[in-house]
Write a structure and sequence with these properties.
The complex is a heterodimer of chains A (about 210) and B (about 160).
Chain A (H helix, E strand, L loop, with lengths): L4 H8 L14 H37 L3 H26 L7 H39 L2 H8 L6 E2 L2 E2 H48 L1
Antiparallel strand pairs in A: 1-2
Chain B lengths: L2 H8 L3 H10 L4 H17 L10 H23 L22 H10 L4 H11 L4 H8 L3 H18 L6
The chains are: A mainly alpha (about 210), B mainly alpha (about 160).
Chain lengths: ~210, ~160
């Protein structure tokens, strides 16, 4: 008796060879390429965004009358971009004609170097960003009016002593925690990529062991 | 992809991926490419799984979407004079199943439209009309009629070899 379509389907898959999964030979190649390409793309977009953002802030600062802040933030942002562009060149030097493990290991090496440099820089530029904001407002007309107004700020040799002390403490804290803040910040943006990269590396190392 | 992820979340469902990839490919090479891409996409989209449906439904959805996308891409790459539906003699021997009836059924399924292939694969895997509609993104009311028509078409294609 002829079988129904349903029976052919059911019986056919009872055969032991019918559901043999193919080997995933190139999966690591594809995965690592995907992860690294994604990171490169995000990194590039991030640098472009910082550059564009710095120009917008510069223009806006002149419009709202706090040009000192705009100029300083512009300089800091572009210093970060220049350093990272140089680091980016190192990323392009990673050879593509090596196996996946070597490729991903080289990328990880580059990434760690990039994180170390940026985290050291963060200890300087986070307080500098804060100082730019403070100086920007300090030199703005509104604050100058307050200084000259009836509720005068206590000045010692032309320095607002209590304000200065507060700024100094906050800058010190930002410098001390700069590296940690940077890592936290970078994890928000690239955390997922880092996690997947680490998974691939662990997996590959497990296979090589 | 950690080996844990592959072992826990893909291996138990390989039968779904295999059955679907087989229906959208004509050669072993294509099948392996499609299978690999599906696994890769499952891993990549793992974070997007919201547990609103079962993991197996998620696997069906990704497998079908990947196969349809790859088929579309290949259609665009290959000129129109090359048919997607290769005649039996052009399919590789190594690609065939041991069960001849299953081979014939798959050959017939490959002659259906992309969507009909998806519907019948899900039906044959004993998915309810509601589940089929959920996976494909259609109305459950139309699935019954569609399945009936597809089965009639398959019977015709199989030249009365089935009842």
């Amino acid at each position: 008796m002829e079988k129904s379509i349903e029976a052919i389907w059911k019986d056919g898959f009872l055969e032991s060879d019918a559901l043999v999964a193919p080997k995933l030979n190139n999966l690591y190649d594809q995965k690592s390429k995907h992860i690294i390409d994604k990171f490169k793309r995000m990194f590039k977009i991030n640098l472009i965004a910082i550059s564009i953002g710095s120009v917008i802030i510069l223009a806006a600062s002149f419009l709202v009358g706090i040009p000192v802040m705009g100029v300083l933030l512009f300089l800091i942002a572009n210093a970060i971009v220049i350093v990272n562009r140089r680091l980016q060149k190192g990323l392009l030097k990673i050879k593509l004609n090596v196996n996946s493990y070597q490729y991903i290991k080289a990328f990880d090496g580059w990434l760690q170097k990039q994180l170390t440099i940026n985290s050291k820089m963060a200890r300087i530029y986070y307080p500098l960003i804060f100082l730019s904001l403070v100086l920007g407002f300090w030199f703005s007309n509104d604050i100058q009016d307050i200084i000259r107004g009836p509720n005068q700020i206590l000045m010692v040799y032309g320095i607002p002593i209590f304000w200065g002390l507060g700024v100094l403490i906050i800058s010190g804290v930002l410098s001390y925690f700069g590296g940690v803040i940077y890592k936290w910040d970078v994890n928000i943006m690239y955390g997922n990529v880092f996690k997947k990269l680490s998974e691939i590396l662990n997996d590959m190392e497990e296979l090589r062991a | 992809m950690s080996s844990d992820f592959y072992t826990s979340f893909i291996v138990p469902y390989t039968s779904i991926i295999i059955k679907i990839c087989r229906a959208y490919t004509n050669t072993q090479e294509d099948f392996e490419d499609y299978y690999q891409e599906v696994c890769l996409q499952i891993w990549k989209s793992n974070d997007k799984f919201r547990q609103e449906s079962e993991w197996s439904t998620w696997i069906y959805q990704i497998s079908l979407n990947v196969c349809l996308t790859l088929l579309k891409k290949r259609k665009n790459n290959v000129q129109h004079f090359v048919s997607d539906y290769l005649p039996d003699e052009l399919t590789e021997d190594s690609y065939a199943f041991a069960d001849e009836s299953l081979n014939q059924l798959y050959d017939a399924i490959r002659q259906l439209s992309e969507v009909d292939r998806a519907v019948i694969l899900l039906y044959l895997d004993e998915k309810s009309h509601k589940e089929i509609a959920e996976i494909i993104g259609t109305n459950a009311n139309n699935i019954g009629v569609r399945v009936k028509r597809i089965k009639q078409r398959l019977k015709k294609l199989l030249d009365g070899k089935v009842n």
